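Incident log, structure service

09:12 report received: a user says their structure output differs between two submissions of the same chain.
09:20 pulled the input from the user's history:
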Amino acid sequence: MSMKGRHTVGQIITHIVMISVAIYTLAPIVLLFINSFKSNNEIVESPVALPSSWSFDKIINAAGQIHFLKSLGITFVITVISITLLVLVSSLGAWVMVRSKTKFAHVLYLGFTAAMLIPFQSLMYPLLNIFDSMGMKNIPGLIIMYGGFGISMSIFMYHGFIKSIPQSLEEAAIIDGANLFQMFFYIVFPLLKSTTVTVIVMNGMWIWNDYLLPFLVIGNREGVKTLTLELYFAKLTAGQYGNPWELIFPAVLVTSIPIMILYIFVQKYIVAGVADGAVKM
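09:34 re-ran on a clean worker, output below:
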């Protein structure tokens, strides 16, 4: 076989593999979408078939049962505040660790990276007991916990990219009369765009979809549930009368749409940010 023929066969195999991976990845989303328009009987009889009608009644009903707008607002506030704190604290912390040429800064950085290896389950009960004794098993306490669990990975990513920024830029800013905060927010931080977007999306997807931590901290408290909690307790209530598939599928769909839209718009920054933070260690 000639080189051109081998190249063509290689391309065909590559395309087949990529198409297979794409189908494997998108299949759950397609099934979620088409089953969101079906009744329980239709889902049980043929989960892969198209619905008999494309009425939005079931989606509207599911959104009402999980108090979509209210829980969306609560989830949005928790996510935005948590991510804002994470970005500010981790970017500043990583910058100080990079520019401080001391052993303490190096040990501190190693401590943050090592913390990524500690499983949440080993800290769960002691952490909840401490926050309960402080009267912080509420939304502010939940935000602080998210900041604590997300800061290690965020500092790791920022640290790798900041090392590639020439220190001469900061020295020039100081000569021009900038203080430390002006130097960081006007000179350094704008250069961290791709890493910042990656930190926002990775932590945002985790916080938005998280179930365990809100369940442990907030629980079944009326009026302050996140989307995942509303979905769980709505399913729990409806599940007393059988499998509530016509509630589960549309409810999961409406809770997933916001984060899917965000990911579509910023996906190119995720790849760039991960690469920038990883290869420049």
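09:41 both user submissions now match this output. Likely a transient worker issue. Closing.
09:42 reviewer note: The radius of gyration is 24 Å. The longest helix spans residues 245-279.
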